[in-house]
Queue: 3 jobs
Job 1
Amino acid sequence: MLHFTGVPLDTLLRIGALAGALVVVFYILKLRRRPVAVPFSKIWERVLRDKEATSLFSQLKRLLSLLLQLALLALLLLALGDPRPQANLVEGRNIVVLIDASASMQAIDVAPSRIELAKEEVRKMVRGLSGSDRMLLAQMDSAVTPLSTLTGEIAELEAAVAAVKATDATADFARALRFAGDTLSGLPSPEIIVVSDGALGEPADAGGPVRLGDIKLSFLPIGKGSRNAAITEFSVRRYPLDKSRYEVMLEVTNTSDEPLDLELSLLGDGQLTDLTRIRLQPKEKLPRFYPNLSGASKTLEAKLALADGSSDDLPADNRAYALLPERRRARVQVVTAGNMFLEAALLLDEYLDVTFVEPQRYPAAASFDVTIFDGVTPTVAPGSGSLLYLNPTGTGLPFEVGKEILDDDPHYRLGFDELDAKHPLLRYTALSDVNIARARALKGSKEDRVVGRSYKGPLLIEGRRSGVKFVALGFDIRESDFPLRIAWPLFLLNAINNFVEEDTSYISSFRTGAVWHIPASSSAETASLELPDGTRRTVPIQDGRAVFLGQHAGFYTLRVGAPGAQEESMFAANLSAPQESAIAPVAELKVDGRGAGAVGEFKIGVRRELWVYLLAAVLLVTAIEWFTYHRRVTV
């Protein structure tokens, strides 16, 4: 039984009666005898005889023409009513399809890849929708991106399938489920279909486990293989005292269930610098440390390949990227009345551009990365950069200076009794045996960090105020044996290095799947970001940081400013997610304590929208009418 879902039947009957009457009236008015010029009476007699012989056939021809026109009218009215079978009206579903586009879906264990196979399976679902089903497609990675509306239009849904692209990020499964649940809330026959290899993690977030209620959950598993090795960590650091040299740390993981023979390559500025063969047992992790390297000035890249030249099942995690911290000269302002030990230590680093300023002439007419206050504490001027206080006194400081401490206890020497040995300020130093004649205890806020203290109070602290970092040493180095030790210049250069390289190390290697805040000119509102594939995006700048959701690994270039006067900076991003590299497909999916069922029936051809066929019939009848008219069959 058919139901009209477009124009109601009674309305169609009224329109049909009126239009049919008009067709008949106009057809009758059109019936006129054709004038025939007859030059001779004998011919006139012949015409009359022919007319009498064919009058019945002519009437039949004219009646056939009327019937064709009425048939055209009937077909158009039926198409306007959009008739559908009753079953299509009762069995309609509201479906949200979550297509996993995380990094593991780039695996090639199925041809041509997991993501392409998933898209083909979703296309089959779309083509198998019944006339009353509605579907919404959403891409699921670190974000949830709806690619269509909740619709039954095949063209829109197929375009949404084509727009799905895999990323180098993990899937936020909980967020995707909450999105789907909110979309289907209050709709009849709700269903969520998850198309994935199952590497999705627990369906829980800060709000707790996801609850789906009475929403039906179905799962379409994708993938077969599990052979994979990955670079799961990669970082680089320049040496503080020799910025032409650097060290690299990386980690290689075999996530498969079989041993693998691998080749690990390290490239600097695109040139091969190291090649190593390694063998990893199943599930084994191998850290690799490369000390004292040189030759690269900007970019580093690590590559992993099977020793036999073939590829594992997930090439996406076989490469990692890092950007070497920039080797620029640090601008240092030293406010001192004269200190030979301080001046000598600053001569050890060729990448320091040092300006000495007498206390009464502070500040110098320039902008600096670091300012060192030696025994003086003036009001900090704009453009001073990060601050290093040596023997601070007075008020107006970002911390409190306590009373004087003397080395007057015969049983204990005044020095560093407790040290935060892992702090960057103390890298390569030994301060536990430094002797101090007199000092002042320093007291910072609860957010500040005590790096070194004596039994009488803190002597070395570091912290941050209004975005400006500071370090304070609570004694005059000339009243100790500190400057006579190799630890003194190391400490000083560590402090400067920690100040200057903070932002550079922050942006040298982001993790994919997170919102990045990239240092940029605060005077601009937008910036141009070039992605690893060469495409460009315009990104907003907020509080001196360009904001961007990074989904792909590789090298990025940020450009700020007008063409010809642009500030350009680079940074790297990596897929460092062992859960994405463990690509063994999962056969079952559980949410809220219940397992997902198999995907229901989607059959190509069950979608019967009859108005399409009715319009096709209209075109066919029109063609017949045109042909018979011009062949003078119906006239």
Note: Residues 502-507 have pLDDT under 50 and may be disordered.
Job 2
Amino acid sequence: MKQFWKAAFALMLLVSVLGAGLKADAAVKPGTPEPVEKKPYEYEFNVTDATYNGFTGAKEMVITFDKSINQTIAFSDVYVEQIVKGKNIKVPIVLKPLANGNKLTVTFKNLELVDYKGKEDFQLVVKQGKLYFDQLTNYEFPFKFYDLTPGFESVFVNTNNATLINEKIFKHNEPRNIMIQVPPIYITKIETIHRYKGIVDPDKSAPNLSNIDVIAHEEAKRLKVKLGTNNTQYERDLDRSTAGVNGFSMGQAGIDNLTCVPDTPPKDGCKEYSLNDDFELTAFSKDGRKLETKNFKIRVSDKEKDFKINDYVKADTKFFGRPVSLYELMLSPILLDNIMKEIDVRALNDLGVSYSVAPVATVTTREQLELALINDKLKKISLSGNFNLANTPAAPFVIDRDVTIAGGIITGDIQLGKGKDRIIRLEGTKINGNLIVDVGANGTAVLDKVTVTGNTSNPHTRIVSGGSNSIHLNDFKSRNGIEVSNTKQLRIVTTNTLEDTLIFDYKAQAPVQLEVVSGKVDLTLGEDKMLAESNKFTVFANDKNDVTVSSELTNNTHFSLNEVVVEVDETPGIKKIDTNGKFIEVLNENGEFSLENFEISELYSGTILKDKTLEEWTVVDQTEGWNIIKITDGFNVSQVSGDGFITLETSDGDTVYHLPIQIKITS
């Protein structure tokens, strides 16, 4: 009887300890967790020798299935989607899916061309029925873009990377904008209770009993447990606890007495035990992604008293689960040290690195070109080689964003813009097809050393729209000529050092101003077209002899050819603002007057600088004998000797703008 009460008391003591442990240490959550479907697979990301932005360490996705998969899976059976505002956009970044037994390894390409800043959510999709006959739905594997790129160790923990870091990262990013993605600690606490001889009198023979509670981040929906290296009977596949533990809980009987490894001195309560007592815990998300693996060994400091241990995890969770900037890590060694204490066990490459790559890219395939055009962070795209764009479902191939395209040979019809205001440059490109320019009523197209060979008997270039900043043609060739068929006012500027004559077929429905700075042009009126005030044609030329005009135009009062000097600013990076011949007329007040903001703002009000105040302009040139002093809201001009000019300068950060102002003095 006495032994019975001793056993009963021990049972009550254990229950009370368990209850206290759950409440105090396991952060009890009320209710029962929603059941989560266990995926027939798990996946993770492994570091490879592949490169991203010059750094080795780009990752591959490895998916391990519960059973062998179809060995003939094709490239087209797998694709990646970028998830933006609930929409899924396919991005061609899969290089190869390779099946082997029950594993599918997916490698990636074109990563430098993807715009992922603020749009980091992606998913790999394996099409329905491609792996098994009973695969009834698509398999989807969510990930962040930085899961694929080289991690913290590959980028910053390598002394050989200093030059790469300067050229590829620091050249385009300040340390405050380089984000280190520190994942959460998914297994936040482990508590074990190990009772020798069970819960009965020590004199009785009974199996050892252990209780293991694993407190886990809410994203961890599944926990796989292994005990030992050779004994598989101790494996578990756990759902989240239904008994109130904020994570996972399991019991285990028959674990051997916990003793030190032979010839190993006791240390910190004898933490080192035989391999058969080594627990491996692996947490998974609801989607089957491997989140974290943690190993530990059950220990007991005192068989009779200290049978409950809960300090297996010592990391401070407040440093995890959030992005930190490289600047923060450099500023605070404590922050980095605390992260490193936990990352030592996992891997430094688990820390993703996010930054902006250079705003230029070189592409070699049509697939890369299409991907680069989606990324509006890429301001310049260089074409290397030949590009067949002829097989476009909705021909022509349309480039419809602000961008510079340089080099290359394109086969197929091309269209610049779709009527919206764009700034598009083509530099040194040969187009074996037709070209349509439709950059909008306020847009700009610059065609610099571009050749259009065409594939019809009609003019191979057609200009549909362009604004006051105009269409610029420099050493431009177009077989069979250029058709001008705009519906809104248009300005075209030509500079040509070639012997070829630019032929313009005038079919405009709105006024056009053509400025011939250099080179020869031939102007004809399109068949069955009428010239009126609504579509008048005005031509300015440096040399009237460079312009050949058909009789249909010369005999029409709505065509004019004025021999005037058409200036062009030859300084690289400088653009002159066209004031359309306007000037400021001022009253001479004893040889002094003031140019105030409201007086000259109308000269550039139609340009992209319309919001620039006069304070943001400086004087770079002036008529000899004038003296100009800048004041808060304008310029004071004195010592005036007659009509003249001043040239003001400002910049938008990329381009320097010159505003020439003509001034007439009246008495």
Note: The chain has eight helices and 52 strands.
Job 3
Amino acid sequence: MKKLLVISMVIMISLFAFSKDFVVKDMFTPETPKLGGRVTTALSSAPQSFNLYGTLDNAAYTIIPNVLSPLVEANPITNEIEPGLAESWDVSADGKEVTFHLRDVKWSDGVQFNANDVIFTLDYFVMNKFAEGNSIARYTINGELVKWEKVDNMTVKATLPAPYGAFFTVLAQAPIYPEHKVSELFNKNDLGSVNKIWTTDTNVKDIVSTGPYLIDNYVVDQKVILKRNPNFWKVDKWGNRLPYVDTFEYLIVKDAEVAMAKFMAGEIDYIKVNSKDYPVLKQKELQGADFVIFRGQPSKPTPSPLHITFNFDAKNDSLKELFRNDKFRQAMEYALDRDRIIDEVYNTLAVYGGVPVLPSNKGFYNPKIEEIRRSFNLTKASKMLDELGLKDIDNDGIREMKNGEDLSIVLLTKTTQEFQDIAYLYSEDLKNIGVKMNLQILDAGLQSQKALSGDFEMSLWAFGNQPDPQLRKAIWQPGNPLYYNHLSTMDSETRTAVKSEMYDWELEVWNMFEKGQTEMNIDQRKSYYDKWQEIYAEKVPFIFVCKGMDLMGAQNSVGNFYQMDDGTLVYLTYTVFDK
């Protein structure tokens, strides 16, 4: 009989005791630093908000973790849970109560960080179902929310409806906002008012910090300038208070070619490299350029593997019927040439995208999906479409549906070059088997709005990968607002699951996530998520395309930016320095 754990990680069992300052792991500070100076990197889009819970915006997700800290943190390399704004915690014997002892930290404006900040953030930001970027699904266990209470000014307690295997991992992605600054902007009689707090027209002087940096200036559509927070609570092994640099700057460069030109000119210190640029840049490095180009194994959850999906609630009834047919979706997977995409779009610098758990995620990856996944085969795809009665009756090269209309589908995607290239290659192969694919290519913001509102037929997008699948329950479990390919599985008013709208396999996925959430036996938890991956691989509500390798470029002047022996890239915004 397997040993049943009261909690999923040994680290959660004991009461931790740390000093006020947390010493970062040696792996992040291999070089003796030079203090001061500036480091610059690039953002491909402007932030839509400085409130993570009031937006769904990758730029905000990149910036704000530099400004606000969570209660606990996940080591970005090992994924181990480490202290954050909570310097210690203890867990009850039944695993249902967790008491957090808060770190003695001041906000950057001198106000003491305390329990009120934690309670306000969790109740009105994180678990507010009307917050556009809420995480309520992560804190709902067996249909009940986690309850938070203030024990005293420096102690808070979380009461869980049941043991929760992913609880600490979830908390690591919940930065705490300053109650003394945001409560006056929040209307408790209008919970949606949270979405109007700390928008990008906010005076940045009003945005206070417990993180390594403060927002010093935001020049709309040009740059976000962060300055060092002298009160940050992390130090290095030599006792230096982090961060090392005085200024950390994000240049907003929407055009990838322009961003790369700025990197080669030395205006950007480190940057994500496009697979198409990798060979040229690597050659320049070998010829003596003043930068290093890294090729890392894809292990990080973001950017997520790309996926193609079908709108089960499509407005066109004939398409809706097809999209809900397992055989049609399987045929559409046979028509996807992943290997060609990896070769031509990614210059061979990508791997298959999992479902969506990556092979490098040893804790949760299920290799059985490799036996289920359908490889490119237009002959099989064409035969399956024939069997569905989708034939080219009028010999115009396009199959007709049962109602006589052409089998013509609009694929929604965004303007990023790799998305456009993949959409084009896919449409060309579909054309060869009589499926007309029209591309709708929109700005990322508009594309996101249309997708999340269900205003599409098929979609090529990328989101939803994390070390622990439970962190993406709101995406991959039916009945949630981000399960955007079948929104009718959720009541839009109450934001609750509508099980009667789910197919049997969707209901099984729903149950797997519920069980995986409360199960504390590690092996049993994995078995639930294994089943989810197998169902997705068989039923293909999402066709997972591929995941690009971690390609980065860094100027030789950037310290503490390196690659480990296993191919993992190591760098943090607050440990890099300007040599």
Note: Confidence is low (pLDDT under 50) at residues 1-19.
